[in-house]
Amino acid sequence: MIKIKNPLFILAAGLLLVAGSTFGVATSAQKADGAKVESVGFSTAKISVKLEEQQGDTDEDYAKVAWMDTDGTTKSSDLQFVNLTSIKPGETYAENLRVVNDSDYPEYVRVVVRKYWVNADGKDVNIDPAYITLHRTEDWIEKDSESGEEVIYYYKNPIGKGEKAQFLNGISFDKEIGKEKSKTVTTTETSEGKVIESKTTYEYDGKQFKVEARVDAVQANSAEDAINAAWGVIPTFSGDTLEDVQ
Fold first, then answer.
1. Quick one: average pLDDT of 189-202?
2. pLDDT digits (tens, 9 = 90+) for 26-59
3. Quick check: 115 and 209 in contact, CB under 8 A?
4. Best label site of 80, 103, 144, 154, fewest CB within 10 Å?
5. Which residues is 116 bridged to in the sheet?
């Protein structure tokens, strides 16, 4: 069992920075990679969305951790990972995140996530981000980057006014993070007999993980044009259900 007491310990509870982001589909927008997308000619509704984390035991214990306001203002804060008081590699721990449409119009939502490891010097590119597994619900389309660090999730269905959609329900870590690096055994003779001490170090001692995410939305009206303009992808629909993005 690997104990997690504070952010300086191995596999500290992590930092989930959730930065909202807004995209104006009637003017210009930013893709996930920062490239600019040209404007298209259709009217847009003022929409907003928020990301909430469960920080207690009941449905009343959800806290808003990131959002996009109707005026384009965004706000972010840290997730608490309240269930990560200790970690056993290979086990799954509850981490409930949901998106909420708090605007007056139906909308399609995406969440962009970056996950990576850090050490005392900053980002550690020698540890595979895939060792961090985020467990999403089945109603999301997942698009991974080549590096495995950035993942973009698109919710398949339009979310109506006041409606909620579960995003994550768990987090786990690959058994590789519990791999032993070295083990030493020291025997000391005392007046009371032998004292045997064993010390084990692990490959990822002193490492921390970070997960960064942002949430944004586009109007459900003229969805194909809105998604293409705001997110720089070509959507495929079956009725109102988003089947894929390219």
1. 78
2. 323 444 555 444 444 556 789 999 999 998 888 8
3. yes
4. 144
5. 210
Burial class of 118 by CB neighbour count within 10 A (0 to 12, 13 to 18, 19+): middle
Buried b (16+ CB within 10 A) or exposed e, 40-78: beeebbebbbbbbbbeeeeeeebeebbbbbeeeebebee
For 238, residues 6+ apart whose C-beta sits below 8 A from its C-beta are: none
- Return the closest-CA partner of residue 18 out of 231, 226, 216: 216
Residue 48, pLDDT score? 97
Q: Which residues of 6-38 are buried (b: 16+ CB within 10 A; e: fewer)?
A: eeeeebbbbbbbbbbbbbebeeebbebeeeebe
Neighbours of 90 (CB within 10 A): 12
Q: Which of 35-44, 76-85, 227-236 has the highest mean pLDDT?
A: 227-236
pLDDT value of residue 205: 73
Would you put residue 193 in left (φ > 0), alpha (ψ -120 to 50) or beta?
left
Is residue 101 within 8 Å of 74, Cβ to Cβ? Answer: no
Beta strands at 12-18 and 208-219: parallel, antiparallel or unpaired: parallel
Report, as an integer, the average pLDDT of 175-186. Answer: 80
Backbone angles phi, psi at 227, to 5 degrees: -65, -45
What does the DSSP assignment read for 28-60? -EE-TTS-EE---S-------EEEEEE-SSSGG
Max intra-chain CA distance, the chain: 88
Q: What is the DSSP letter of 160?
A: P
